Amino acid sequence: MGKRNYMNPYLAGVLLGLVLLAAMFFSGRGLGASGGIKYTVVALVGAVDKQHAMESPYYSKYFENGERPLKNWLALEVFGMVLGGFISGALSHRLKLKIEKSPKISNKKRLAFAFLGGAFFVYGAQLARGCTSGAALSGMAVLSVAGFVTMIAIFGSAYLFAWFFRSLWI
Amino acid sequence: MGPLSILSEFPEWMNLLIAFVIGIGFGFALEQAGFSSSRKLAGMFYGYDTTVLKVFFTAAIVALAGSQLLSFFGLLNLKLVFVNPYYMNATIIGGVIMGAGFIIGGFCPGTGISALSIGKIDAMFYLLGGMFGAFLFAETYPYILTLANENYKGPMRIDEWMGVSSGVFTLILIVVAVALFWIAELAEKKFKRADITNEI
Predict the structure, then answer these.
(1) Cβ contact (<8 Å) for A122 and B130?
(2) Whole-prediction pTM
(3) Pairwise CA distance, residues A53 & A69, whole Å
(4) B80 and chain A: CB distance < 8 Å anywhere?
(5) How many other CB atoms sit within 10 Å of the CB of residue B26?
């Protein structure tokens, strides 16, 4: 199999920008990703222990007025993302079950750090009210200070920590 | 005139259908950009691949300039578009935690979903970790209420804060982005890692 070609990054950026513009034009809002993960957890907790969900100051707001956590804009957008990524992967011949990692580390190490990184990222995203998509990218497109500060904090912090975790990547 | 779903009072199913279709476009664009590869994303922080910066800033500028053009021609009422509220302490501390998660896990939530959609097993673990993070946040929420809500500034706008018009700010951002793209191209040459970029 030959080298897999990705789209030119500036062209991909224009495409992503137009998708974000469409979200603003059609729905009056930006894109999101961590919110979809949150709604999945809220739905799971609600299914496993409804009483705990209703008593918690955090979960209960997603069940008010008989609302269902997976029946909202962000959750549907995230379902669409999985399909869109799959279509792109199929067209570019990139569909493959695999663990991607540096050859210098073991599969186990990569998976453990992936789990840990996910936990950190989504915890931070809940605190900051959005991740790279919902707070940084969408926030910058509407000129919100929160968007610019989130972007600088995420990238600044990643550069700061990159030295400590370089053995995972280079 | 937009936002269509607000001004035309679309039924709920139509809003959800729009969300799903926009999600398809979002997932497609991320995967085409190469954001389904953690080693490509991590390149941003070691200099050998700066796709993240190029895609991110191009997208932000297209949406920003595009929405202002639509507003100028009376096609979009920007007052009805959501502006992120600014909780100063939570945004900064949350952002720092997210940055650590980025370099430890190799993804952000959106790119993790993109990688999952083409079969990356590490992305599956990343998203399981993400669900654990959301769970942990919900359970610790009562104890961090002060941090989460301190220094609330409302939906504050950067152009107003700087005292310039939105058009002038957009121009400044474009100039900054072009300078960053130039630095990024230089970095890719200086920190070149053919052994990694040939694999991803």
Answers:
(1) yes
(2) 0.96
(3) 12
(4) yes
(5) 30
Distance CA A39, CA A9 (A): 31
d(CA A104, CA B111): 23
Q: Which amino acid is at B71?
A: S
In sequence order, which residues have a C-beta less than 8 Å from that of residue B59 and are 6 or more positions away? A13, A14, A16, A17, A20, A137
> Quick check: B51 and B40 in contact, CB under 8 A?
yes
Identify all chain A residues contacting B44, using CB atoms and an 8 Å cutoff: 155, 158
ipTM (interface pTM): 0.97
State the Cα–Cα distance between residues A137 and B102, nearest whole angstrom: 15
Q: Quick: pLDDT tens for A22-70.
A: 999 999 999 999 999 999 999 999 999 999 999 998 999 899 877 888 8
Query: Mutual orientation of helices B109-117 and B121-140 as an angle, nearest 10°?
Result: 140
Distance CA B89, CA B101 (A): 18
